[in-house]
Amino acid sequence: MALSDNACDSLPSSVHEEEELDLPIGYRFCPEDDELLTHYLANKLLGRQLSANIIRDIDLYEYDPDQLPIDQFKYGKGSEAYYFTNTRQNRTTKNGYWKATGEDEEVFDADGAEIVGFKKIFNFYWGLEPNGEKSEWIMKEYTLHPSIIPADALSDSITKKIERFVVCRIQNKEDGGDGNSAIKF
User: Fold this and answer.
1) Concatenated DSSP letters for 94-155?
2) DSSP 76
């Protein structure tokens, strides 16, 4: 498949409509970390069609977490949703900021043999840095390792996309983290 040089170059600031999927009863979207990277993010960066448009494109930092349409993400746990977005060094929103909880963690393929990317965990704080109040919102940000892109597809354009484009898992832990309770706003 030919690469699209303009794939993911700009993300819309508004949330796209989610296509309605005809899925079997009991289906839940709960990919492993390596699957988010190798199937969803890698294919998105390469301009390939995804099997289902479950993960929305969004400018994540234009919204406070309680403004995100997590309740509309009906294919996974009730307290979490997934988004593609551009990453920023300054992860601030209108009323708060996302603060990293530690170092990047390596994410390995299913066999544990190859690094496919990295995961960084953030907590959301209401208010201004560094005096914000910690909230129940957690974000896991996944970045792709360039080694999983086929050598013939790894252009400067794709490398730049890898450096700035991520997939995020946002979760409200207020429900105890099990995803069985409704999100409380």
Assistant:
1) SSEEEEE-SSPEEEE-TTSSSEEEEEEEEEEEESSTTSPEEEEEEEEEEEE-GGGS-GGG--
2) S
pLDDT in tens, the chain (185 residues): 232 333 333 333 333 444 566 667 777 788 999 999 999 999 999 999 887 778 889 999 999 999 987 766 767 777 788 999 998 888 999 999 999 999 999 999 999 999 999 999 999 999 999 999 999 999 999 999 999 998 888 889 898 999 999 999 999 888 554 443 333 32
**Preceding peptide of 65 cis, ω within 30°:** no
Q: What is the pTM of this model?
A: 0.80
d(CA 112, CA 98): 29
- Residues 98, 123: contact at Cβ < 8 Å? yes
